[in-house]
Specification:
CATH class of chain B: Alpha Beta
Distance between the termini of chain A: 17 Å
Radius of gyration of chain B: 23 Å
Structural class of chain B: alpha/beta
Oligomer: heterodimer
Largest sheet of chain B: 8 strands, mixed
Number of helices of chain B: 14
Structural class of chain A: alpha+beta
Radius of gyration of chain A: 35 Å
CATH topology of chain B: Alkaline Phosphatase, subunit A
CATH architecture of chain B: 3-Layer(aba) Sandwich
Shape of chain A: globular
Strand order of the largest sheet of chain B: 6-5-7-1-8-11-4-12
Helix content of chain B: 25-40%
Helix content of chain A: 25-40%
Strand content of chain B: 5-15%
Strand content of chain A: 5-15%
Largest sheet of chain A: 7 strands, antiparallel
Number of strands of chain B: 16
Chain lengths: 1010, 472
């Protein structure tokens, strides 16, 4: 393209003025939003802005009347305006901004303010808080091109020509699919001479299932989707079905308003389905902790603020985080707005501290059938067990007699704990019967209980630990795990510093492989897989009997240590300790009888209440030997069902609790300060909104408001982000802040048009994508003359396209695709690509080994990579994939040595080079030169250039000579990766071609979309 | 003392000389100074507003939260009150971790204290080696922090904020000052485990560059496997072959650059050169066989054993090579129980090594240009936990500094008589950051980056204050 230098000069001037009001606006009227607000916001609002608690001299400059009333501004009169005097004051006490603020206005900025006041000091409402509007456009023109060219005309710059077709198809594929086009697809497009060839290509791409994957990537960043909880132990949680939901939503072109509503309130919809509930996993994507000693109030606040920031980042384009502690310094967003917005989410049922629940079960149709079969079996077995008959009454009577006549377990004295302590923060309550319950807020996934007791008078020979079922525990306990089980890894008895020796341990029940003996074997004390466990449902009240090697004299203080290190809440939820002075041996009887049962049995039948009778009948069935086969069968069924359920797909979803958590404003964000006012859910006060007469609005109201046409922010925020996907930078360059400290878009009319069109089309995302990629603006070449490049390095004015490095996931997808290794299945659980050993060594509770996936899952797209927040896969990290600990609207795009190390040495890329080389040798024919062209077509959709051929032929020859002389090295190189090495190829030749292939995969052009 | 510049230059000369057989041609072609400069990390600050007292920082992070009461803060009164209820006047309405809502009992310091150095500073007798260099050390007994759980507390200590996504101090410093190491990252992190088994997890975000460019993120040096991730060439590819491939990649990239005029390509070429240099320089750095027997004895380490002592020796080697910010994590300080044995074990692991680092830097004339900081993420309660340990605590902790511009032998600030809260010259993490930046020649209040509408800075929105009284 040809440009004259004066045109560049004016471009330079105009560009400078358009970005952050850096220079005096050119002639004409000073515009408040464009020219003045950025200066005032950055330099003055900190003390003279919306935050009333921090306001100095009771002066605010963000509102015209107040600024005039205080004489800071006298419209039209520069000599009388205090504001201007203060800017140039020589007395440091008078000077503004104060010297200690480290803020200083440039002469140009001062001049801008002066001219603004001279022209009447007109204010404007902040640009993004007024509804977007469209201006009349020339007929038949593409609106985007019309608006871009209108602005370029004022800058005297011409747009760039259209890129060639090879560039266009490559660009379109990366932008919309994240994958390179195949050589065949390129040829087809190059040879398609129909006038609508490009339009049809766009439709083809929009219909591909990979479109949803590509579009999901940015959304997963902004909602901080990850496989792990984030804080401290950073353990896994079940959320991957949400990723599938996002992909499907883009593929089915779910309107963005519905897309929003389902995520925020999919559980509250009158027509809620499993699908909309999975969408509501959005509310669960926050960070959480399992750290012992974490305080619920602290984390309740962290979770609230996390959610408010997400709404601000993903939909509103507002930075809200600062309002956790005080009113926003620059925007009208107050602390009250912050906590009121947080109150929308106070209904979500979730543990504040500790392991997340498994989540909603998402069975396939076949799995649903199996579940129904389990339920049916359970129902029948219970009915069989509970059935009443004269025969059974007779059996029960005999059983009762056998109990009342023989000696029952009387020699046990309950031990009342003197002190109770959980190493990892479990909290306890105890009743007068010596029954100890782990309090609901007990949050340790593993814990060691220390129970200090005093032994009864006489010689204590043994101890008994009863594991007691309770309605409040999962599956009625007695353990705290999902299945109601526990694993007691070690039972030890301490007398001061001394550990007492144990002669024998037996139990009324044992789970297979978890015998009582293991719990007293010191060798396996720290082995999470060794210990005593029961089947853990209501039929399995159980007790552990421990015989001491030497009896202990009476009334000694002992500490009984119950070590439970298996994790997953495999800890006791309810239990009791007793001691006996009975002569040895101390062994478990077949059953154990609670006192209330013994009491009932002692009563004549007619004196028993109906309740007592029922309890007794139930207990009889629970313990009597006659029922053992039925009991075992039922227990086995329940265990099998639980195991089956555990193996199925689960997803954390939003479930609304009947009573909401109380939300109050925490002054300075201090969760210990409960002096702040209690607030109800409310929308930010400064934005247009409906009235909710007498009711408190809920999440559904919030979601509907976000995507209502009255909301001036959402469509702009979403379109601004979308624009970045296609041009490398937003129209307003700060994607997560459309507020005062963000940037008024240089081409505001264009962003407004996009926002209006988006809403008017019924929030039709594919429509907007189609509009953008079919514009001439999108199709321009990305190369620029040095002058255009230096005048507009970031391409803010769109006089060309931009070239930029593709995202982390795409770097991987591209290499695997070129190599022919990619497994392009859409959806499914996260995948684990090769990762350096010990990369997770700093993770703990529990410590973890990373096991790379085998087979197809090894070759999934980057989007499906296991997202470990605290240690994201290092290849992803190197290419700027965010850890997703915070919402990320915009990735950085760095160029660092680690990227070279990854592409050169990560086994994923070595294996890709190997597969690519094998492909070249098996699928291309002819001379080396022909093969190189073939390889270039595959990697770059073009032929190799002469210089490239020379360099690579020399490289190939050099390596070939070396590998011919050193076959071992060639063989070693062929071993990287799981994919089988072809056996029909000459090894030194293949090894040498691997080098050519890796050069191609490492090229800047290969990882660049231009 | 060798200036950092000439030491960096020598490194290149060294690589040039020893590169025979390591792709010598490629190496030599990569090591022409003009092209090396393209990869060197420059800081954004240019001319510094303040005199630069130190060129680098070695930060010793004692992860888990060391008890000040068994290390650097003697409390005889607490010993007297052992077993008695903790007076409520101290603890009412305060933030506690696992002890929240429990009965609070005074727990005596578990080890005796002794006086060391000319200054006669009293520290725990478990640390005689640190005691022997006490006159080099400025001890702050009045440090406080905001957070009380490990993860947020580490974030606060590293980034000045409890919210993820902020740059770590090492990233801030290299962003501001760049690095003098041309063939190593400017911000290097090493971790070591303790033998007590209370090794709390540490997230990679602790050395993240947050919203700063990724090139400033900390690079972890590992003691096993590749010292830097993906540093080793693939099996079957020699370093020389790697060099040929990089030459070819760069030749093709250069050719492409002539066609499209994209400045990113020049950077890409420089980064491939830097990556290749690291493939030679990092193994050389990790190879301590050239260290004298007396040096190894000083640190008391077996090279390559991954211990804190071995990491201290590597820290010195990194400092010599011009690395700007070196952070060592040593874990296992989380003594909820068994604190008596636990701290004794930790003392064995770190006491000699800390002394050795100070002594070694001093004898090489580098101590005055280095700032060493020893700090945990929080302190521990004077109250007992479970009869043998202490809980997390954010009202009081001890940290110390040594090196350039710091007043050795000084004790700054104090806690109350039971060691519950800092009461005299109360200092904050932001103060610590502000002071560190000042020593590096950076005006902490104006060292800001625009993020989410705010002028974000390491020393916090409200701003820390430079601890002038501890500086010479």
């Amino acid at each position: 393209m040809k440009q004259s230098s004066p045109a560049y000069a004016s471009l330079l001037l105009a560009l400078a003025s358009s970005t952050a009001a850096a220079a005096v606006p050119p002639l004409g009227k000073v515009e408040f939003n464009r020219d003045v607000r950025p200066i005032l916001s950055d330099n003055c609002f900190y003390c003279h802005g919306p935050d009333q608690n921090h306001r100095k001299a009771k002066l605010r400059l963000d509102e015209r009347e107040q600024a005039i009333e205080k004489k800071a501004i006298v419209p039209g009169k520069i000599d009388e305006s205090e504001l201007l005097k203060r800017l140039v004051a020589s007395d440091p006490d008078e000077l503004m901004p104060p010297p200690d603020s480290n803020k200083k206005l440039t002469p140009d900025q001062k001049e801008t303010l002066k001219r603004w006041i001279q022209q009447g000091a007109e204010y404007q409402a902040h640009w993004s808080y007024v509804p977007p509007h469209t201006e009349p456009l020339p007929a038949n023109a593409h609106p985007i091109d019309a608006l871009v060219q209108k602005r370029l005309a004022t800058l005297h710059v011409n747009p760039s020509p259209e890129a060639d077709r090879r560039t266009l198809i490559r660009r379109l594929y990366f932008d919309l699919l994240g994958l390179p086009p195949s050589p065949e697809e390129v040829v087809h497009f190059l040879n398609d001479s129909a006038p609508d060839a490009y339009a049809r290509l766009v439709e083809h791409v929009l219909a591909s299932p990979h479109y949803g994957e590509r579009m999901a990537q940015g959304w997963l960043d902004v909602v901080r989707f990850a496989d792990t909880i984030g804080y401290h132990s950073d353990t896994p949680r079940n959320v991957w079905p949400y990723r599938d939901w996002v992909i499907n939503a883009f593929n089915s072109n779910k309107p963005f308003d519905r897309f929003t509503i389902e995520q925020i309130a999919g559980d509250l919809l009158p027509d809620a389905t499993p699908d909309t509930r999975v969408a509501s996993a959005f509310n669960r994507l926050i960070l959480s902790t399992e750290e012992g000693g974490a305080q619920p109030k602290d984390y309740e606040l962290r979770m609230l603020t996390d959610r408010v920031r997400a709404i601000g980042a993903a939909w509103l384009g507002q930075t809200t985080g600062c309002a956790q502690c005080h009113d926003h310094k620059f925007d009208p967003f107050t602390a009250r707005d912050f906590y009121s917005l947080g109150a929308f989410f106070a209904d979500i049922k979730e543990p504040i501290i500790g392991k997340r629940e498994e989540g909603m079960l998402l069975p396939s149709p076949q799995e649903t059938e199996r579940l129904a079969a389990f339920a049916e079996r359970e129902k029948n077995m219970r009915a069989d067990l509970e059935a009443d008959s004269p025969e059974r009454r007779e059996q029960q009577k005999r059983w009762e007699q056998s109990l009342s006549s023989g000696p029952v377990d009387v020699a046990w004295s309950r031990l009342q704990p003197i002190k109770l302590y959980g190493d990892r923060g479990s909290k306890f309550t105890q009743n007068e019967e010596g029954v100890i319950s782990v309090a609901v807020e007990g949050n340790a996934a593993s814990d060691t209980y220390f129970v200090t007791v005093k032994t009864p008078p006489g010689l204590t020979t043994g101890l008994k630990l009863e594991a007691i079922s309770a309605d409040t525990l999962p599956q009625k306990g007695p353990g705290r795990s999902q299945n109601g089980t526990f694993i007691l890894n070690q039972f030890s008895v301490k007398d001061g510093d001394k550990t007492l020796k144990i002669a024998e341990a037996t139990a009324t029940h044992e789970q297979k492989g978890f015998s009582a003996k293991l719990a007293v074997d010191p060798k396996s004390a720290n082995d999470p897989k060794k210990g005593w466990a029961t089947l853990g449902n209501e039929l399995r009240d159980a007790a552990l009997y421990v015989e001491l090697e030497k009896p202990i004299e009476g009334e000694r203080t002992l500490t009984i240590v119950l070590r439970q290190v298996a994790g997953d809440n495999q800890t006791l939820g309810k239990f009791r300790l007793s001691a006996t002075t009975a002569p040895t041996p101390v062994r478990a009887p077949g059953v154990q009888f609670p006192p209330e049962i013994l009491k009932t049995i002692a009563l004549p039948e007619e004196k028993r209440s109906a309740g007592q009778q029922a309890t007794l009948a139930k207990h009889f069935r629970a313990v009597a030997p006659e029922f053992a086969p039925t009991r075992t069968a039922l227990a086995d069924t329940l265990t099998a069902k639980a195991e089956f359920e555990k193996s199925l797909t689960h997803c954390l979803v939003s479930v609304s609790a009947e009573t909401k958590r109380t939300v109050r404003i925490f002054p300075r964000g201090n969760f210990l300060d409960e002096s702040g006012e209690v607030v109800k859910a409310a929308l930010p006060h400064y934005l247009p909104q409906p009235k909710f007469e007498s009711r408190e609005p809920n999440r559904l109201d919030l979601a509907q408001w976000l995507v209502s046409k009255e909301n001036p922010l959402t469509a702009r925020t979403v379109m601004n982000r979308l624009w970045k996907q296609f041009f490398g930078i937003g129209l307003s360059k700060v994607l997560d802040d459309l507020g005062a400290q963000g940037e008024p878009p240089p081409n505001a009319a264009l962003l407004d048009w996009l926002a209006c069109e988006f809403m008017d089309s019924g929030w039709d995302m594919k429509h907007m994508v189609r509009r953008i990629v079919t514009s001439a603006t999108y199709k321009q070449v990305s190369s620029a003359s040095p002058q255009l490049l230096s005048n507009d390095p970031d391409n803010r004015e769109l006089a060309r396209q931009s070239a930029f490095r593709i995202d982390a996931e795409l770097v991987r997808d591209n290499a695997l695709s070129v190599a022919g290794l990619l497994v392009p299945n859409v959806g499914g659980p996260s995948a684990k690509p090769y990762q350096p050993e010990r990369y997770w060594e700093n993770l703990n509770f529990p410590s973890r080994e990373y096991a790379a996936d085998k087979g197809d899952n090894q070759y999934r797209r980057g989007l499906y990579t296991w997202w470990q927040r605290s240690f994201l896969h290092p290849s992803m990290l190197a290419f700027d994939a965010p850890s997703r600990e915070e919402c990320c609207a915009e990735r950085t795009r760095s160029n660092i040595p680690q990227q070279a190390l990854v592409l050169l040495n990560d086994p994923t890329y070595v294996e890709a080079a190997r597969a690519f080389a094998a492909k070249i040798l098996s699928e291309s024919t002819g001379s080396t030169e022909d093969r190189l062209h073939w390889a270039f077509q595959r990697a770059l959709q073009r032929n190799a250039r002469p210089e490239e051929l020379t360099t690579l032929q020399a490289l190939l020859q050099k390596h070939l000579t070396a590998y011919r002389a050193d076959l071992n090295s060639a063989e070693a190189l062929l071993q990287t990766g799981q994919a089988p090495a072809p056996t029909n190829l000459d090894k030194p030749e293949l090894a040498a071609w691997i080098h050519v292939a890796r050069v191609l995969l490492n090229l800047h052009e290969t990882i660049t979309r231009a | 003392m060798t200036s950092a510049f000439s030491s960096a230059y020598n490194r290149r000369a060294f690589l040039g000389k020893t590169s025979q057989g390591l792709g010598a041609v490629a190496l030599a072609s990569l090591l022409t100074p003009s092209r090396v400069n393209a990869a060197a990390t420059k800081g954004v600050l240019g001319t510094l507003p303040l005199p630069q007292k130190v060129k680098r920082v070695i930060w010793l992070s004692m992860a888990g939260g060391p008890s000040h009461l068994e290390t650097f803060d003697p409390k005889p009164k607490l010993a007297e009150m052992h077993g008695q209820p903790m007076p409520e006047s101290f603890t009412k309405g305060q933030q506690l971790a696992q002890l929240q809502g429990q009965k609070l009992t005074c727990f005596a310091p578990q080890h005796p204290f002794e006086k060391f150095g000319k200054s006669q500073t009293e520290i725990c007798a478990l640390f005689p080696h640190i005691g022997s260099v006490m006159d080099e050390i400025c001890l702050i007994r009045s440090m406080t922090t905001d957070a009380i759980n490990h993860d947020p507390a580490h974030m606060f200590m590293n980034t000045g904020s409890q919210i993820a996504g902020r740059p770590s101090m090492g990233a801030w410093v290299t962003y501001g000052l760049g690095s003098e190491a041309s063939d190593l990252p400017g911000f290097v992190v090493l971790t070591s485990l303790g033998k007590g088994g209370q090794n709390q997890p540490i997230a990679a975000r602790q050395w993240s560059s947050g919203f700063l460019p990724s090139r400033y993120q900390g690079v972890q040096l590992r003691s096993k496997g590749d010292p830097v991730l993906y540093l080793g060439t693939p099996q079957g590819i020699s370093l020389e072959q790697q060099g040929s491939d990089i030459d070819a990649i760069n030749a093709l990239n250069r050719h492409h650059s002539h066609l499209v005029n994209d400045p990113e390509i020049a950077t890409r070429i420089a980064q491939y050169e830097m990556a290749f240099q690291m493939q030679a320089s990092v193994p050389e750095l990790m190879n301590v066989t050239g260290e004298t027997a007396s040096t190894l004895e000083l640190y008391g380490c077996t090279p390559g054993d991954g211990s804190f002592a071995a990491n201290c020796l590597l820290a010195r080697r990194l400092a010599e090579r011009g690395v700007r910010f070196i952070q060592l994590y040593h874990k296992d300080w989380d003594h909820h129980g068994g604190i008596k044995e636990g701290v004794a074990l930790k003392a064995q692991e770190i006491d000699r090594a800390c002394m050795a680092l100070i002594t070694d830097l001093k004898q090489r004339g580098m101590l005055e240009s280095t700032l060493i900081v020893w700090a945990g993420e929080f302190g521990r309660t004077p109250m007992s936990q479970g009869g043998s340990g202490r809980d997390h605590h954010n009202k009081a902790m001890s940290v110390w500094m040594a090196g350039g511009g710091v007043r050795g032998g000084l004790v700054y600030g104090a806690t109350d008589e039971l060691g519950y809260a800092a009461v005299e010259n109360v200092t904050t993490v932001h103060d610590l950051h502000a002071t560190m930046l000042q020593q590096l020649g950076i005006q902490h209040e104006s060292f800001t980056v625009k993020f989410q509408g705010l002028d974000a800075k390491l020393s916090g929105v409200e701003g820390g204050k430079v601890l002038k009284n501890i500086l010479i």
